[in-house]
Amino acid sequence: xPTLTLRTPFLIFVGDESRVTYAKTGRGIVDWRRDHCAGQxxxxxxxxxxxxPDMTVAEAAxxxxxxxxxxxALVGGSIPPAWIATLTEAARAGLDIVxxxxxxxxxxxELAAAAAEGGAKLVDVRTAPAxxxxxxxxxRTGMRLLTVGxxxxxxxxxxxxxxxxxxxxxxxxxxxxxxxxxxxxxxxxGVPIDCVVADFISGAAEVxxxxxxxxxxxxxxxxxxxxxxxxxxxxxxxxxxxxxDAFVVCHAAGRTEIEGWPHVPLPSIGDVIERTVQIxxxxxxxxxxxxxxxxxxxxxxxxxxxxLARLGKRYGLPAVDPLLxxxxxxxxxx
Amino acid sequence: xPTLTLRTPFLIFVGDESRVTYAKTGRGIVDWRRDHCAGQxxxxxxxxxxxxPDMTVAEAAxxxxxxxxxxxALVGGSIPPAWIATLTEAARAGLDIVxxxxxxxxxxxELAAAAAEGGAKLVDVRTAPAxxxxxxxxxRTGMRLLTVGxxxxxxxxxxxxxxxxxxxxxxxxxxxxxxxxxxxxxxxxGVPIDCVVADFISGAAEVxxxxxxxxxxxxxxxxxxxxxxxxxxxxxxxxxxxxxDAFVVCHAAGRTEIEGWPHVPLPSIGDVIERTVQIxxxxxxxxxxxxxxxxxxxxxxxxxxxxLARLGKRYGLPAVDPLLxxxxxxxxxx
Lengths: 334, 334
Description:
2 copies of one chain form a homodimer.
Chain A: E1 4-5, E2 10-15, H1 24-32, E3 37-42, H2 57-62, E4 67-70, H3 81-92, E5 96-99, H4 109-118, E6 122-124, E7 143-149, H5 156-169, E8 174-177, H6 181-187, E9 189-190, H7 201-208, E10 217-220, H8 232-242, E11 246-252, E12 257-258, E13 261-265, H9 269-280, E14 288-295, H10 304-315, E15 319-320, H11 322-325, H12 328-332
Parallel strand pairs in A: 2-3, 2-4, 4-5, 5-6, 7-10, 7-11, 8-10, 11-14, 14-15
Antiparallel strand pairs in A: 1-9, 12-13
C-alpha cells in the first residue's frame, strides 16, 4: 500500500539559512533520526550548524547518500536561485531531492532534467501518494495511539515523537507514523493527510498504520483539531482511519482561541476528549484517552509542574509536558 | 469566489445509450432544469429519448448552445471511441464539453486540440476549482438547509432538489446548491466536495453557499454520512462549512448496513440527528433537524404512508417521501 517513502541516508541541505527557527525541519531530523543523517550541506560559513559532518555533493554521492533533504523553511515557499546549481548537481549525481515547499520541484526545468539524467526522484512531501483507497473501517491487528489537540500547532508531532522514544526506552515496540510534511521528513515515511483528496482521508489513515504485531504500537501524529473550523474534517478522517486504542490530547498553556481564527474560542480539553471518543467509537469501541500533553513553555518556570498537576487531577489523567517531564506517565497508563 | 460554473443552454449528449438507468444524469437535468436544455444529441435511433428536440452539433452551435453535456454514466468511466468524432466537432464549434467521468477530457489529444481551436472549455465536474480557501467559520447572512443521511445513495440530492421546487412553489426564495458531480450538471454550478483537497473541505462548502439575502434559503446537497467509515470526513467538512440553520435526514426504508460496507451497521436516524447537531453547533448554534426524508420505494405500496407516519411520530418531525408526498410538510416546519 502506498505511503511516501524517502531514500535514506540523508544529506541535510541548510543553504545559507542562519536563523535556527527557519532550519527546524533539519534540526528535527537530527534530533529524532540522527541515524538517517549522513551529513549537512551549507552554502555559507554563517549557515546553521546542525552538528553533522559537512559534505559536498560529491562526497555525499560517494558515501551512498540516498536523498538531499531541504531542511529549511522558506518565506514565500519557493527555492532561491542561488540553490539551484547545488540541487541540480545532487540530482545529476543520483540523489533524490526532498522538499516540503509550495513550489513543485518538478516545475524547475533544469532540476527536472538533472533528475532524469541522474535517475533521481524529485519528492514533494506535500504531494499525496496516488491510488489511496477509500476507508474500509475494518479492524486491524496491532495497537494504535493518536495525538489529537485543542488546536493546530501545539505539539502533536513532538508529543508523538517523544512517546515513540520513551516507549522504545521502556522496551515497547513502537513506531512514529507521520501524517504531515515535517513528520514525513523526520520519519522518512508517511502520508501528508491534509493534502489527500477528501474521499480518501480515512483510507489514507488506514494505509498509514497498517496491520502489525498484536503488541506493537503505532504512535500516529495528529492533525488539525476536531473543533477547528478549517481543519476538523481532516481530524475526523484521520481519527476514524487510525482507529486508535488510545489517544493523547495536546494543548498549549494559556491559549484561549484557535490560532489564526480569533473569533473561535478554543475548546476545553474535556470537550476534545468527549468528541474524540464519540467519533472514534465508530471504528474502535475501546478508544480511550490516556493522557494530556501540554506545551507549558509560556508559563513562569516555577508554575509549570503545578499547572500539570492541577490539570491531571481535574481530568483524572496523567498530564505531561514532553520537554519538561517526558511522557513516561502516559506510557504507564497504557 | 470559485465554484464550477457551466455555460448554458445545454445540448444533452446521449450517445448510443439505450438503458434509461445509464442516462439518468441527462434525465435529471431535464427533470430539474428543463430551461437549461436546448436539445439532445443521439448517435443511434435506439438511444434514450429524453423528450428534448434532437439536434446536430451544427444546429446546436447555430442555436447558441453553450455546452455539450455528457448525460450518460459509463461502465469503466472512459469515453467510447465512437463518440470522439462528435465531441471533437462540438468542441471545434465552440461548445464547452462537460463530463463527470474518471477519464479526463483534456487527456484525449484530438479533443484538446479541437477545444483549443474552437475556444471551448473541457470541463471535468470531478475536478475541484482552484484557489479554494480554508474554512473561516464566520457566520454568513441568509438561511441554509443541508440534507444529510444515514448512508450514501439514498436521496440527499433528490430531496434537496424537491425541497427547492416546493419552496419556490410556496413563494420562498430558494436555490439548490450542488456538492456532487450529477448535482453540478443539474444545477449548472457547484463544487464537487469529495474531490477537494482535505484542508479545504469546509472552505469549499463556505464558497458553495455564499452570503445571501436574510430570507433566502440555500438548499445544500449533502454527501456521504457522518457515521460512514469512508466518507464521514467529507460530511463533517460540508456540515461545518454549510453552517445550516436546518437539516433534513435522508434514509432508505429497510436499509440496515452501510451500502458496500456490509460489516458496518447503519446508524439510526436518531443517532444521525444527535451527531449532526453536535458537530454543526460549531458554526451555527441554532442548527436543528426539520424533517426526515425516506425513499420508501422498497416497501409494499400500502405500507409506505403508514411507515412515514410511524417514523414522524417517533421522532416528532415531519417524515416525507419526496416522490410520494412531496416535501411541503418539511417546509411548513421551517
